[in-house]
């Protein structure tokens, strides 16, 4: 079976956008109706001749902060169980948040390889926003713009190295 890459991160960091870009087609289902649970969505990706399954862990993104955090934790735990490599996505425009640190703690406990993508770095002169995220202790941190598709090559090179 193919290696599994799970995209984990708090709401709105760009998980579905990067998922769609890697999938090369608009597979992630955007469900606007409140109360509808969006389950994890799978697709098949390929990079440098290596095929893999990709999971978008997006889900319920409403309710209070506690509910949101519980949901992220649950989704992350499911994804972590299945994943060979975790793509931990954060938002370079928002900077590091308490929720990011919470997710980081979970991921450290998993003992799975984690690659950090700092998304929304839309301009090369904004790259310095990545440095704070080194504190999370996952090693290299990759600036990307899921919107423009920049930086994703280096990120994917690293991910497929870890299979
Ligand atoms: P998710 O909740 O983590 O799945 O995030 P989405 O993929 O739904 O993206 C949340 C918002 O961030 C949307 O408005 C996207 O258009 C926007 N977004 C995603 N990637 C980028 C990016 O690289 N740059 C900028 N400026 N916005 C982005
Ligand atoms: Mg999403």
Brief overview:
This protein is an alpha/beta fold. Helices cover 31% and strands 21% of the residues.
Structure commentary:
By secondary structure, the protein is an alpha/beta fold. It has one domain: 3-Layer(aba) Sandwich (Rossmann fold). It is built from 4 helices and 6 strands, in the order βαββαβαββα. Strands 2-3-1-4-5-6 form a 6-stranded mixed β-sheet, sandwiched between helices. β2 (41-47) and β3 (50-56) form a beta hairpin. The chain is globular and about 35 Å long. The protein binds guanosine-5'-diphosphate and magnesium ion. Residues 9, 11-17, 58, 119-120, 122, 145-147 line the site of guanosine-5'-diphosphate.
Tags for this entry?
163 residues; alpha/beta; Rossmann fold; six-stranded mixed sheet; 6 strands; binds guanosine-5'-diphosphate; binds magnesium ion
Cα separation of the termini: 12 Å
Classify the beta-strand content into a percent band. 15-25%
Count of discrete structural domains: 1
Small molecules bound in the structure, each named once = guanosine-5'-diphosphate, magnesium ion
Percentage of residues assigned to helices: 25-40%
CATH class label: Alpha Beta
Indicate the CATH architecture. Answer: 3-Layer(aba) Sandwich
Radius of gyration: 15 Å
Organism: Polycladomyces zharkentensis
Protein name: GTPase Der
Function: GTPase that plays an essential role in the late steps of ribosome biogenesis.
Binding site for GTP 1: 9-16, 56-60, 119-122
